[in-house]
Structures are given as structure tokens and as C-alpha cells.
Amino acid sequence: MLGIMIGVAAVILLVALGNGTSARLNEQITSLGTNLIGVLQSRGSVATSGKTQPLTDKDVKALQQDTQGPRFSSVTPVKQASAVLAFQNSLWRTSIVGSSREYLTAFHRTMAAGNFYTDGDVNTSNRVAVLGPKPVERLFGGRSVDALGQTIRIGRQSFQVVGVLVPNGLNDDIAVMPISATRNYLVGGGDTVDQIVVEATSQATVPPTMNKITRILMDRHKVHDPDQKDFEVRSNLELLRQYTQVSDVLTLFLFIIAAISLFVGGIGIMNIMLVTVTERTREIGIRKAVGARRKAILKQFLIESVVLAGVGGLIGVVVGVGLSLLGKTLGASFGQFAPPELSAGSVVLAFTVSLCVGLFFGAYPANRAARMRPIDALRYE
Predict the structure, then answer these.
(1) How far is residue 19's CA from residue 331's CA, in Å, rounded to a whole number?
(2) Which of 79, 224, 309, 352 is deepest in the core (most CB within 10 A)?
(3) How far, in Å, CA of 252 to CA of 249, rounded?
(4) What is the pLDDT of residue 333?
(5) CA-to-CA distance for 57 and 62, rounded, in angstroms?
(6) Digit-coded pLDDT (tens) for 24-59
(7) CA 372, CA 69: separation in Å to the nearest integer?
(8) How far apart are CA 56 and CA 77, in angstroms?
């Protein structure tokens, strides 16, 4: 019973942990927007000539000015780097993102305090920055209001903090600023961009929008073979599907590990039932001597085996459900910990499997008892 209990509880708890992790990943990716499409410089095969063109502001404008369907909700350039932020005696290395005013909309971010920079800041290369929660925590003790209006050093330049982003669990260690200021004061790069983020009008239009982006940029870069294009087009929808597949494999793996415990518990039940049959040999002989048929003996020991497994399974259900609910209650206070998501299907399945384990592993001892000859059983001491 203890083996079955551990197996059933493990199945319920591990499947709940897998479901919780999957739900957390889906929630985080969905919060970024499943209709977002990223265009990046290709890192694979290139044209036969070996020449590649970087992504530039002209590529961004070509996408922004295109009027053919499907339409884009927004087209946002992104310039990325890494730099050390300094305020008084505190230092923190973080990711730098230079972008346009559309960054908030494109990446589905909201402001926790202050304001985002304006188009005027982009046009005039104003040294202003919007910090993510992590730099605010490290430099200002997590107090967003204290960060507003402060002057911090990024590299060798001074920037004024004008806003703080709401955490989203993925891109919290970040400092966002006008793309012009990033180029002029931090990384250079002329008119090149590291990434172009395109927002499709809906999730359903993501595939045709990706095809349209590929077609426009291939024309601009004068690439005729799709296998030799010098850029990559990816979508968050594809990323979500990949994470879902990985999560499903992880959940299956955890379920198999827990099922091993059930298998071990079943072997324990079979051994116990074999001992029981041996200890009750004379009882079996007496029952057969007074007319009990093989079917009655078989049913007796099968019922005992299933009851043992069933009671262990019920206890395991209580323990597994209890631990899952406890983990879900405590999970909210553990930050990035993904709380378990209890699944009714896993509870029913685990208990049903425990009964089947009792039936399967009890069959051999029960059959052994049923096949005993009465005279041999009565002689046994």
C-alpha cells in the first residue's frame, strides 16, 4: 500500500508541476504577444557570393510604407547592447535596448511609474532612459518613484531616468532609450538595426504576414533564393508551439518516472500476495474440500489485491492533491516558481492505474492459489 501510495501521489504531483510550468511559459509568451514577428540578421547560410546586407532603417521604412495586405499594426526597430549602469556607489550591468516610441505597444509593456520617451526624444537623441524592474531594484532599492528624475551613468554618458516598466517576468533586466541616443552615445552603428519587430493585426494573419515580410526584404536585399536570404523571420507563435511541445515531453517524462513507482508498488503487492497464499495454504485446501470452485478462490485473492492497491491509491490521491494545493498556495510567494496546476484527469488516471496494478500483479498469486490441489493443500504445514 505504501508503494502504491507513493506512486499515485508522485503521478499527481509531478503532472501538476509539469502543467504549472507549461502554464507559466504560455502565460509569459502570450504576454509578449503571439502576433509579434521578429526579423533578425541571418546566422546560417548566405548568398553564394558571400555578401550579406545588415538590417537598416531603410528596411524599416520599406515595411512601414508598404500598403498591400496583410497590413502591419506596427514596425519597430531595435538596437541592442550591454552596458554598466552606475548610480552613486551602485553598479549593475544590464541589457540596453534602443528603439522608437512604438516599443511599448510592440512589446506589450506598460509603465509602473513616470512616462515613456517621446518622438521628440528620438528625433533629438535626448539622453533619457526607461528602466526595467531589475536595474531599479539594484540601483534604487526597488523604489520606482525614487528612480524618476535621477541621473545615471551608462558607460561614459549621463542619462536621465524618465520611467520604470512594469515587470513581465522575461525582459525585466533592461534599460530602454531612444534608438538615436543608443547609436550616438553608446554603440554607434550608423543606420543599422539588430532586430525589426513587426506586429501582425491578429494571430491568424501571422503566417501570411511573415511571408510578406520575407518577400519585401528579399526584394530590398536582391536575394532570389529563399535558402540564401541574409535575414531570419521568426514569430512568438512558433516559439509558443515549441515551448508547448517541450513542456508536453517534460510532463510525459515526469509521468513515466512516477509510473515506475507504481510498478515497484505493484511488485510489492505481488510478493505480499504470494506470501499470503503460502501462509493460507491449509485454508485454501479446506475451502476446496468443502466445494469451493477455482473461480471462487481466484476471485477472493484478486479482490484482496485490488483492495490493497485501491486503499493505497486513495491515500496517494489525498497526499498528491494536498501537496499540489499546498504548492499552489505557497507558489505565489516564491516569485519565479511555477505553482502546480492540479489536473482532474491525472487524479482519475492515477487512481485507475493503481487499481489495474492491483489486478495485474494480484493475478499470478490468485491463479496460483486457485490451481492448488485440495489434498496437497491440506497436507501443507
Answers:
(1) 14
(2) 309
(3) 5
(4) 54
(5) 9
(6) 777 766 666 678 888 888 765 555 555 678 888 899
(7) 81
(8) 9
